[in-house]
Write a structure and sequence with these properties.
single chain; mainly alpha; Growth Hormone, Chain: A; 3 domains; two-stranded antiparallel sheet; 16 helices; 1% strand; globular; PTR2_symporter_CS
Amino acid sequence: MSENEGSEQVPVGPPLAPTTESEPEHGHRDTRFFGQPWDLVHIFFVEMWERFSFYGMQGILLLYMYYSLEQGGLGMPEAVATGIVGAYGGSVYLSTILGAWVADRLLGSEKVLFFSAIVIMCGHIGLALLPGFWGLGVGLILVAVGSGGLKANATSVVGTLYSPEDTRRDAGFSLFYLGINLGALLGPLFTGWAQVTWGFHAGFALAAIGMAAGLIQYSFGRRNLPEESRVVPNPLPVNRRMLMIGIALAAIALVVVLVLSGIIRADNLAGVVILVTLVATVAYFAVILASRRIDGTERSRVFSFIPLFIVSVGFWSLYQQQFTVLTIYSDKKLDRNIFGWEMPVPFVQSINPIFIIILSGAFAALWTKLGSRQPSTPVKFGLGSIVMGIAFLLFLPFANGGPNSTPLIGIVGILLVFTIAELLISPVGLSVTTKLAPKAFHTQMVALFFLSVALGTAIAGWLARFYDPNNEVPYFLILGLIAIALGGALLLAVKPVLSLMKGVR
Protein backbone atom coordinates (compact mmCIF):
# COMPACT_ATOMS: atom_id res chain seq x y z
CA MET A 1 0.00 0.00 0.00
CA SER A 2 1.14 3.46 -0.77
CA GLU A 3 2.96 5.73 1.61
CA ASN A 4 2.30 8.57 -0.82
CA GLU A 5 -1.38 8.87 -1.61
CA GLY A 6 -2.28 8.53 -5.24
CA SER A 7 1.21 7.86 -6.55
CA GLU A 8 1.21 4.06 -6.57
CA GLN A 9 -0.96 1.18 -7.66
CA VAL A 10 -2.80 -0.50 -4.83
CA PRO A 11 -3.23 -4.22 -4.23
CA VAL A 12 -6.59 -5.91 -4.41
CA GLY A 13 -8.15 -6.33 -1.01
CA PRO A 14 -6.51 -5.29 2.21
CA PRO A 15 -3.21 -3.42 2.12
CA LEU A 16 0.31 -4.64 2.44
CA ALA A 17 2.89 -3.45 4.92
CA PRO A 18 4.81 -0.24 4.30
CA THR A 19 8.29 -0.05 2.90
CA THR A 20 11.55 0.56 4.69
CA GLU A 21 14.11 3.07 3.52
CA SER A 22 17.49 1.83 2.37
CA GLU A 23 20.45 2.78 0.22
CA PRO A 24 21.47 -0.22 -1.88
CA GLU A 25 24.50 0.31 -4.04
CA HIS A 26 23.95 -2.14 -6.85
CA GLY A 27 20.40 -1.18 -7.87
CA HIS A 28 20.95 2.47 -8.82
CA ARG A 29 21.72 1.89 -12.51
CA ASP A 30 20.06 -1.49 -12.98
CA THR A 31 17.12 -1.09 -15.39
CA ARG A 32 16.72 -4.62 -16.76
CA PHE A 33 13.16 -5.23 -15.49
CA PHE A 34 11.02 -2.66 -17.35
CA GLY A 35 13.36 0.09 -16.21
CA GLN A 36 13.57 -1.29 -12.66
CA PRO A 37 16.27 -3.28 -10.82
CA TRP A 38 16.34 -6.89 -12.02
CA ASP A 39 16.01 -8.13 -8.44
CA LEU A 40 12.44 -6.79 -8.42
CA VAL A 41 11.49 -9.66 -10.73
CA HIS A 42 12.09 -12.20 -7.95
CA ILE A 43 9.81 -10.44 -5.47
CA PHE A 44 7.28 -9.62 -8.21
CA PHE A 45 6.77 -13.27 -9.07
CA VAL A 46 6.83 -14.71 -5.55
CA GLU A 47 4.18 -12.15 -4.56
CA MET A 48 2.17 -12.80 -7.72
CA TRP A 49 2.13 -16.55 -7.12
CA GLU A 50 1.38 -16.05 -3.43
CA ARG A 51 -1.67 -13.93 -4.35
CA PHE A 52 -2.58 -16.52 -7.00
CA SER A 53 -2.60 -19.26 -4.37
CA PHE A 54 -4.20 -17.10 -1.65
CA TYR A 55 -7.14 -15.80 -3.67
CA GLY A 56 -7.41 -19.01 -5.65
CA MET A 57 -7.77 -21.06 -2.48
CA GLN A 58 -10.10 -18.52 -0.88
CA GLY A 59 -12.29 -18.55 -3.98
CA ILE A 60 -13.24 -22.19 -3.38
CA LEU A 61 -12.74 -22.41 0.40
CA LEU A 62 -16.26 -21.56 1.57
CA LEU A 63 -17.83 -23.79 -1.08
CA TYR A 64 -15.60 -26.67 0.06
CA MET A 65 -16.79 -26.26 3.64
CA TYR A 66 -20.54 -26.07 3.08
CA TYR A 67 -20.99 -28.25 -0.02
CA SER A 68 -22.29 -31.72 0.82
CA LEU A 69 -20.10 -34.80 1.00
CA GLU A 70 -21.65 -35.98 -2.26
CA GLN A 71 -20.48 -32.73 -3.88
CA GLY A 72 -16.94 -33.21 -2.57
CA GLY A 73 -17.28 -30.81 0.37
CA LEU A 74 -17.33 -31.17 4.15
CA GLY A 75 -21.05 -30.60 4.65
CA MET A 76 -20.71 -27.84 7.29
CA PRO A 77 -23.60 -25.54 8.16
CA GLU A 78 -23.20 -22.30 6.21
CA ALA A 79 -23.14 -20.17 9.36
CA VAL A 80 -20.23 -22.18 10.78
CA ALA A 81 -18.37 -22.16 7.46
CA THR A 82 -18.62 -18.39 7.00
CA GLY A 83 -17.45 -17.87 10.58
CA ILE A 84 -14.35 -19.97 9.92
CA VAL A 85 -13.60 -18.03 6.71
CA GLY A 86 -13.87 -14.77 8.65
CA ALA A 87 -11.70 -16.06 11.48
CA TYR A 88 -9.12 -17.32 9.00
CA GLY A 89 -9.02 -13.98 7.19
CA GLY A 90 -8.69 -12.10 10.46
CA SER A 91 -5.88 -14.43 11.53
CA VAL A 92 -3.95 -13.64 8.36
CA TYR A 93 -3.83 -9.97 9.32
CA LEU A 94 -3.09 -10.73 12.94
CA SER A 95 -0.18 -12.81 11.67
CA THR A 96 1.28 -9.81 9.85
CA ILE A 97 2.11 -8.37 13.27
CA LEU A 98 3.91 -11.58 14.22
CA GLY A 99 5.71 -11.64 10.87
CA ALA A 100 6.89 -8.06 11.28
CA TRP A 101 8.10 -8.74 14.83
CA VAL A 102 10.11 -11.82 13.80
CA ALA A 103 11.70 -9.82 10.97
CA ASP A 104 12.52 -6.85 13.19
CA ARG A 105 13.85 -8.83 16.14
CA LEU A 106 15.08 -12.22 14.90
CA LEU A 107 15.58 -12.98 11.21
CA GLY A 108 15.24 -9.94 8.95
CA SER A 109 12.63 -9.40 6.27
CA GLU A 110 14.17 -11.49 3.48
CA LYS A 111 14.48 -14.68 5.54
CA VAL A 112 10.97 -14.30 6.96
CA LEU A 113 9.64 -13.84 3.41
CA PHE A 114 11.40 -17.01 2.21
CA PHE A 115 10.34 -19.20 5.14
CA SER A 116 6.81 -17.82 5.00
CA ALA A 117 6.52 -18.86 1.36
CA ILE A 118 7.51 -22.41 2.35
CA VAL A 119 4.89 -22.44 5.12
CA ILE A 120 2.21 -21.22 2.69
CA MET A 121 3.06 -23.95 0.19
CA CYS A 122 2.88 -26.58 2.94
CA GLY A 123 -0.54 -25.25 3.92
CA HIS A 124 -1.90 -25.61 0.40
CA ILE A 125 -0.41 -29.10 0.17
CA GLY A 126 -2.20 -29.95 3.42
CA LEU A 127 -5.53 -28.75 2.00
CA ALA A 128 -4.89 -30.73 -1.18
CA LEU A 129 -3.77 -34.03 0.35
CA LEU A 130 -5.14 -34.31 3.90
CA PRO A 131 -8.76 -35.39 4.06
CA GLY A 132 -11.61 -33.91 6.07
CA PHE A 133 -11.47 -31.46 8.94
CA TRP A 134 -7.84 -32.25 9.85
CA GLY A 135 -6.70 -31.18 6.40
CA LEU A 136 -8.80 -28.04 6.64
CA GLY A 137 -7.42 -27.10 10.05
CA VAL A 138 -3.76 -27.81 9.30
CA GLY A 139 -3.95 -26.14 5.90
CA LEU A 140 -5.65 -22.94 7.05
CA ILE A 141 -3.36 -22.48 10.06
CA LEU A 142 -0.23 -22.82 7.91
CA VAL A 143 -1.56 -20.56 5.14
CA ALA A 144 -2.67 -17.90 7.65
CA VAL A 145 0.67 -17.80 9.46
CA GLY A 146 2.69 -17.92 6.23
CA SER A 147 0.58 -15.28 4.46
CA GLY A 148 0.94 -12.96 7.43
CA GLY A 149 4.71 -13.33 7.37
CA LEU A 150 5.01 -12.84 3.63
CA LYS A 151 2.53 -9.95 3.53
CA ALA A 152 4.40 -8.14 6.30
CA ASN A 153 7.81 -8.39 4.63
CA ALA A 154 7.54 -8.54 0.83
CA THR A 155 6.95 -4.81 0.53
CA SER A 156 9.81 -4.09 2.90
CA VAL A 157 12.19 -6.16 0.75
CA VAL A 158 11.09 -4.21 -2.35
CA GLY A 159 11.95 -1.02 -0.49
CA THR A 160 15.57 -2.15 -0.08
CA LEU A 161 16.05 -2.11 -3.86
CA TYR A 162 15.89 1.69 -3.99
CA SER A 163 17.74 4.53 -2.36
CA PRO A 164 15.52 7.25 -0.84
CA GLU A 165 16.43 9.53 -3.75
CA ASP A 166 15.71 6.98 -6.49
CA THR A 167 12.89 8.47 -8.58
CA ARG A 168 11.93 4.99 -9.84
CA ARG A 169 10.58 3.95 -6.43
CA ASP A 170 6.91 4.78 -7.09
CA ALA A 171 6.98 3.17 -10.53
CA GLY A 172 8.67 0.11 -9.05
CA PHE A 173 5.95 -0.30 -6.48
CA SER A 174 3.31 0.15 -9.17
CA LEU A 175 4.91 -2.74 -11.06
CA PHE A 176 5.09 -4.80 -7.86
CA TYR A 177 1.41 -4.22 -7.16
CA LEU A 178 0.58 -5.19 -10.73
CA GLY A 179 1.93 -8.62 -9.82
CA ILE A 180 -0.36 -8.71 -6.80
CA ASN A 181 -3.39 -7.86 -8.90
CA LEU A 182 -2.48 -10.34 -11.63
CA GLY A 183 -2.26 -13.11 -9.04
CA ALA A 184 -5.57 -12.10 -7.50
CA LEU A 185 -7.17 -12.05 -10.93
CA LEU A 186 -5.83 -15.37 -12.21
CA GLY A 187 -6.02 -17.42 -8.98
CA PRO A 188 -9.83 -17.80 -8.72
CA LEU A 189 -10.09 -18.41 -12.47
CA PHE A 190 -7.69 -21.37 -12.49
CA THR A 191 -8.59 -22.92 -9.14
CA GLY A 192 -12.30 -22.47 -9.91
CA TRP A 193 -11.82 -24.25 -13.22
CA ALA A 194 -9.86 -27.05 -11.54
CA GLN A 195 -12.53 -27.42 -8.83
CA VAL A 196 -15.35 -27.70 -11.37
CA THR A 197 -13.35 -30.10 -13.57
CA TRP A 198 -11.67 -32.38 -11.03
CA GLY A 199 -12.88 -31.42 -7.56
CA PHE A 200 -11.90 -29.25 -4.61
CA HIS A 201 -8.64 -30.98 -3.81
CA ALA A 202 -7.47 -30.41 -7.38
CA GLY A 203 -8.15 -26.71 -6.89
CA PHE A 204 -6.13 -26.68 -3.66
CA ALA A 205 -3.36 -28.63 -5.41
CA LEU A 206 -3.24 -26.02 -8.17
CA ALA A 207 -2.83 -23.32 -5.51
CA ALA A 208 0.04 -25.34 -4.03
CA ILE A 209 1.67 -25.71 -7.46
CA GLY A 210 1.41 -21.97 -8.03
CA MET A 211 3.04 -21.22 -4.69
CA ALA A 212 5.76 -23.78 -5.43
CA ALA A 213 6.48 -22.06 -8.76
CA GLY A 214 6.89 -18.74 -7.02
CA LEU A 215 9.07 -20.25 -4.31
CA ILE A 216 11.38 -22.03 -6.77
CA GLN A 217 12.08 -18.93 -8.83
CA TYR A 218 12.55 -16.84 -5.68
CA SER A 219 14.97 -19.35 -4.15
CA PHE A 220 17.30 -18.90 -7.14
CA GLY A 221 17.14 -15.11 -7.09
CA ARG A 222 17.12 -14.34 -3.37
CA ARG A 223 20.90 -14.59 -2.99
CA ASN A 224 21.30 -11.46 -5.14
CA LEU A 225 19.00 -9.28 -3.03
CA PRO A 226 20.61 -6.37 -1.13
CA GLU A 227 22.19 -7.14 2.22
CA GLU A 228 19.85 -4.51 3.67
CA SER A 229 16.98 -6.95 3.16
CA ARG A 230 18.65 -9.39 5.58
CA VAL A 231 19.41 -6.87 8.31
CA VAL A 232 17.67 -7.40 11.67
CA PRO A 233 16.78 -3.80 12.65
CA ASN A 234 16.28 -4.33 16.38
CA PRO A 235 17.84 -7.67 17.39
CA LEU A 236 16.35 -9.42 20.37
CA PRO A 237 19.03 -9.82 23.08
CA VAL A 238 20.26 -13.39 23.37
CA ASN A 239 19.34 -13.55 27.05
CA ARG A 240 15.69 -12.84 26.21
CA ARG A 241 15.26 -15.43 23.47
CA MET A 242 14.48 -18.32 25.80
CA LEU A 243 11.87 -16.16 27.51
CA MET A 244 10.18 -15.44 24.18
CA ILE A 245 10.33 -19.13 23.22
CA GLY A 246 8.71 -19.98 26.54
CA ILE A 247 5.95 -17.42 25.98
CA ALA A 248 5.31 -18.78 22.48
CA LEU A 249 5.11 -22.38 23.70
CA ALA A 250 2.81 -21.35 26.55
CA ALA A 251 0.51 -19.55 24.09
CA ILE A 252 0.36 -22.61 21.83
CA ALA A 253 -0.34 -24.85 24.83
CA LEU A 254 -3.13 -22.53 25.97
CA VAL A 255 -4.78 -22.65 22.55
CA VAL A 256 -4.54 -26.45 22.49
CA VAL A 257 -6.13 -26.68 25.94
CA LEU A 258 -8.94 -24.30 24.97
CA VAL A 259 -9.65 -26.32 21.82
CA LEU A 260 -9.58 -29.69 23.60
CA SER A 261 -11.81 -28.38 26.38
CA GLY A 262 -14.37 -27.14 23.87
CA ILE A 263 -14.04 -23.45 24.75
CA ILE A 264 -12.75 -22.69 21.24
CA ARG A 265 -14.96 -24.39 18.67
CA ALA A 266 -15.60 -24.10 14.96
CA ASP A 267 -18.90 -22.33 15.56
CA ASN A 268 -17.41 -19.58 17.76
CA LEU A 269 -14.02 -19.18 16.08
CA ALA A 270 -14.88 -15.82 14.52
CA GLY A 271 -15.96 -14.51 17.92
CA VAL A 272 -12.67 -15.66 19.46
CA VAL A 273 -10.64 -13.85 16.80
CA ILE A 274 -12.78 -10.72 17.27
CA LEU A 275 -12.16 -10.81 21.04
CA VAL A 276 -8.40 -11.35 20.67
CA THR A 277 -8.16 -8.53 18.15
CA LEU A 278 -10.15 -6.16 20.36
CA VAL A 279 -7.87 -6.89 23.32
CA ALA A 280 -4.78 -6.32 21.16
CA THR A 281 -6.25 -3.06 19.81
CA VAL A 282 -7.02 -1.64 23.25
CA ALA A 283 -3.57 -2.68 24.48
CA TYR A 284 -1.83 -1.00 21.53
CA PHE A 285 -3.75 2.26 21.94
CA ALA A 286 -3.19 2.24 25.72
CA VAL A 287 0.57 1.65 25.43
CA ILE A 288 1.03 4.38 22.84
CA LEU A 289 -1.17 6.99 24.51
CA ALA A 290 0.29 6.38 27.97
CA SER A 291 3.89 6.51 26.81
CA ARG A 292 6.17 9.31 27.99
CA ARG A 293 8.09 9.00 24.72
CA ILE A 294 5.47 10.96 22.76
CA ASP A 295 4.73 14.66 22.99
CA GLY A 296 1.41 16.47 23.00
CA THR A 297 1.18 16.81 19.23
CA GLU A 298 1.87 13.11 18.67
CA ARG A 299 -0.66 12.12 21.35
CA SER A 300 -3.30 14.29 19.69
CA ARG A 301 -2.62 12.61 16.35
CA VAL A 302 -3.03 9.16 17.92
CA PHE A 303 -6.41 10.24 19.30
CA SER A 304 -7.39 11.44 15.81
CA PHE A 305 -6.70 7.94 14.48
CA ILE A 306 -9.42 6.40 16.67
CA PRO A 307 -12.42 7.52 14.52
CA LEU A 308 -10.52 6.50 11.38
CA PHE A 309 -9.86 3.10 12.95
CA ILE A 310 -13.57 2.64 13.71
CA VAL A 311 -14.61 3.53 10.17
CA SER A 312 -11.91 1.23 8.79
CA VAL A 313 -13.29 -1.67 10.84
CA GLY A 314 -16.79 -0.94 9.53
CA PHE A 315 -15.56 -0.81 5.95
CA TRP A 316 -13.65 -4.10 6.08
CA SER A 317 -16.53 -5.86 7.83
CA LEU A 318 -18.60 -5.25 4.70
CA TYR A 319 -15.91 -5.40 2.03
CA GLN A 320 -14.57 -8.77 3.17
CA GLN A 321 -17.99 -10.35 2.73
CA GLN A 322 -16.87 -10.92 -0.84
CA PHE A 323 -15.51 -14.20 0.54
CA THR A 324 -18.55 -15.09 2.67
CA VAL A 325 -21.99 -13.73 1.77
CA LEU A 326 -21.12 -12.90 -1.84
CA THR A 327 -19.85 -16.44 -2.40
CA ILE A 328 -23.12 -17.90 -1.11
CA TYR A 329 -25.07 -15.33 -3.13
CA SER A 330 -23.14 -16.17 -6.29
CA ASP A 331 -23.75 -19.87 -5.72
CA LYS A 332 -27.49 -19.60 -5.06
CA LYS A 333 -28.83 -16.41 -6.62
CA LEU A 334 -26.55 -15.35 -9.47
CA ASP A 335 -27.34 -16.20 -13.08
CA ARG A 336 -23.95 -17.47 -14.18
CA ASN A 337 -25.04 -18.74 -17.58
CA ILE A 338 -23.15 -17.05 -20.42
CA PHE A 339 -24.28 -18.22 -23.86
CA GLY A 340 -24.98 -21.71 -22.53
CA TRP A 341 -21.81 -21.94 -20.41
CA GLU A 342 -22.14 -21.85 -16.63
CA MET A 343 -19.44 -19.72 -15.07
CA PRO A 344 -17.92 -21.32 -11.94
CA VAL A 345 -18.72 -19.52 -8.69
CA PRO A 346 -15.05 -18.64 -7.89
CA PHE A 347 -14.79 -16.64 -11.12
CA VAL A 348 -16.80 -13.89 -9.41
CA GLN A 349 -13.78 -13.26 -7.14
CA SER A 350 -11.77 -12.14 -10.19
CA ILE A 351 -14.08 -9.22 -11.00
CA ASN A 352 -12.74 -6.94 -8.25
CA PRO A 353 -9.06 -7.30 -9.30
CA ILE A 354 -10.00 -6.27 -12.85
CA PHE A 355 -11.55 -3.06 -11.56
CA ILE A 356 -8.56 -2.46 -9.26
CA ILE A 357 -6.15 -2.69 -12.20
CA ILE A 358 -8.31 -0.31 -14.24
CA LEU A 359 -9.26 2.23 -11.58
CA SER A 360 -6.20 2.48 -9.33
CA GLY A 361 -4.33 4.43 -11.99
CA ALA A 362 -7.33 6.70 -12.50
CA PHE A 363 -7.54 7.46 -8.78
CA ALA A 364 -3.79 8.07 -8.61
CA ALA A 365 -4.08 10.55 -11.49
CA LEU A 366 -7.07 12.23 -9.84
CA TRP A 367 -5.31 12.78 -6.51
CA THR A 368 -2.18 13.97 -8.30
CA LYS A 369 -4.13 16.47 -10.39
CA LEU A 370 -6.03 17.80 -7.38
CA GLY A 371 -2.86 18.07 -5.31
CA SER A 372 -3.52 20.14 -2.21
CA ARG A 373 -7.17 20.52 -3.25
CA GLN A 374 -7.88 16.79 -2.87
CA PRO A 375 -10.22 15.74 -0.05
CA SER A 376 -8.66 15.26 3.38
CA THR A 377 -8.20 11.77 4.79
CA PRO A 378 -11.31 11.90 7.06
CA VAL A 379 -13.41 12.96 4.05
CA LYS A 380 -12.04 10.09 1.96
CA PHE A 381 -12.72 7.63 4.77
CA GLY A 382 -16.25 8.96 5.28
CA LEU A 383 -17.03 8.80 1.57
CA GLY A 384 -15.54 5.30 1.35
CA SER A 385 -17.82 4.04 4.12
CA ILE A 386 -20.86 5.68 2.51
CA VAL A 387 -20.06 4.19 -0.91
CA MET A 388 -19.60 0.76 0.72
CA GLY A 389 -23.03 1.13 2.32
CA ILE A 390 -24.52 2.06 -1.03
CA ALA A 391 -22.99 -1.09 -2.52
CA PHE A 392 -24.97 -3.17 0.00
CA LEU A 393 -28.16 -1.25 -0.74
CA LEU A 394 -27.70 -2.10 -4.42
CA PHE A 395 -28.45 -5.73 -3.53
CA LEU A 396 -32.00 -4.73 -2.55
CA PRO A 397 -33.53 -4.65 -6.07
CA PHE A 398 -32.54 -8.30 -6.44
CA ALA A 399 -33.42 -9.36 -2.87
CA ASN A 400 -35.42 -12.51 -2.12
CA GLY A 401 -35.22 -13.70 -5.71
CA GLY A 402 -35.07 -17.33 -6.68
CA PRO A 403 -32.16 -19.31 -8.13
CA ASN A 404 -30.40 -17.55 -11.02
CA SER A 405 -32.53 -14.45 -10.47
CA THR A 406 -29.71 -11.90 -10.27
CA PRO A 407 -28.15 -10.97 -13.63
CA LEU A 408 -24.37 -11.15 -13.82
CA ILE A 409 -24.18 -7.52 -14.87
CA GLY A 410 -25.84 -6.62 -11.55
CA ILE A 411 -23.03 -8.20 -9.52
CA VAL A 412 -20.43 -6.64 -11.82
CA GLY A 413 -21.94 -3.23 -11.10
CA ILE A 414 -22.05 -3.85 -7.35
CA LEU A 415 -18.41 -4.96 -7.32
CA LEU A 416 -17.50 -1.80 -9.23
CA VAL A 417 -18.97 0.17 -6.31
CA PHE A 418 -17.04 -2.10 -3.89
CA THR A 419 -13.83 -1.14 -5.71
CA ILE A 420 -14.53 2.59 -5.60
CA ALA A 421 -15.08 2.33 -1.85
CA GLU A 422 -11.85 0.34 -1.49
CA LEU A 423 -9.83 2.96 -3.36
CA LEU A 424 -11.15 5.67 -1.04
CA ILE A 425 -9.99 3.82 2.08
CA SER A 426 -7.44 1.09 1.40
CA PRO A 427 -4.63 3.12 -0.25
CA VAL A 428 -5.20 6.00 2.16
CA GLY A 429 -5.20 3.98 5.38
CA LEU A 430 -1.56 3.02 5.71
CA SER A 431 -0.49 6.34 4.27
CA VAL A 432 -2.24 8.35 6.97
CA THR A 433 -1.17 5.85 9.61
CA THR A 434 2.49 6.51 8.86
CA LYS A 435 1.83 10.26 8.92
CA LEU A 436 0.04 10.17 12.28
CA ALA A 437 2.44 7.71 13.92
CA PRO A 438 4.69 8.99 16.73
CA LYS A 439 8.37 8.50 15.92
CA ALA A 440 8.78 6.05 18.80
CA PHE A 441 5.78 3.95 17.75
CA HIS A 442 5.86 3.88 13.96
CA THR A 443 5.57 0.09 13.69
CA GLN A 444 2.91 -0.15 16.39
CA MET A 445 0.70 2.37 14.58
CA VAL A 446 1.01 0.39 11.37
CA ALA A 447 0.09 -2.69 13.39
CA LEU A 448 -3.03 -0.84 14.56
CA PHE A 449 -4.14 -0.37 10.96
CA PHE A 450 -3.66 -4.06 10.30
CA LEU A 451 -5.69 -4.78 13.43
CA SER A 452 -8.56 -2.80 11.91
CA VAL A 453 -8.37 -5.07 8.86
CA ALA A 454 -8.17 -8.18 11.06
CA LEU A 455 -11.11 -7.07 13.18
CA GLY A 456 -13.25 -6.13 10.17
CA THR A 457 -12.47 -9.42 8.42
CA ALA A 458 -13.41 -11.49 11.48
CA ILE A 459 -16.61 -9.46 11.90
CA ALA A 460 -17.43 -10.13 8.22
CA GLY A 461 -17.38 -13.86 8.98
CA TRP A 462 -19.46 -13.41 12.13
CA LEU A 463 -22.06 -11.21 10.39
CA ALA A 464 -22.53 -13.73 7.59
CA ARG A 465 -24.34 -16.09 9.96
CA PHE A 466 -27.24 -13.64 9.93
CA TYR A 467 -27.57 -13.76 6.15
CA ASP A 468 -30.73 -15.58 5.06
CA PRO A 469 -31.02 -16.16 1.28
CA ASN A 470 -34.81 -16.33 1.69
CA ASN A 471 -35.08 -13.02 3.57
CA GLU A 472 -32.27 -10.79 2.35
CA VAL A 473 -33.79 -7.32 2.73
CA PRO A 474 -33.08 -6.81 6.46
CA TYR A 475 -29.48 -7.95 6.10
CA PHE A 476 -28.47 -5.74 3.20
CA LEU A 477 -30.62 -2.80 4.34
CA ILE A 478 -29.41 -2.68 7.94
CA LEU A 479 -25.71 -3.15 7.14
CA GLY A 480 -25.87 -0.68 4.28
CA LEU A 481 -27.52 1.99 6.43
CA ILE A 482 -25.05 1.41 9.29
CA ALA A 483 -22.10 1.93 6.92
CA ILE A 484 -23.69 5.08 5.51
CA ALA A 485 -24.37 6.40 9.01
CA LEU A 486 -20.82 5.63 10.08
CA GLY A 487 -19.41 7.50 7.10
CA GLY A 488 -21.83 10.36 7.59
CA ALA A 489 -20.85 10.70 11.24
CA LEU A 490 -17.18 10.98 10.25
CA LEU A 491 -17.99 13.63 7.64
CA LEU A 492 -19.80 15.65 10.30
CA ALA A 493 -16.75 15.33 12.54
CA VAL A 494 -14.16 16.29 9.91
CA LYS A 495 -13.21 19.61 11.51
CA PRO A 496 -12.55 18.26 15.04
CA VAL A 497 -10.72 15.23 13.63
CA LEU A 498 -8.51 17.45 11.44
CA SER A 499 -7.88 19.63 14.48
CA LEU A 500 -6.60 16.58 16.36
CA MET A 501 -4.46 15.56 13.38
CA LYS A 502 -2.33 18.70 13.88
CA GLY A 503 -1.55 19.60 10.29
CA VAL A 504 -1.81 16.12 8.78
CA ARG A 505 -4.46 15.84 6.08
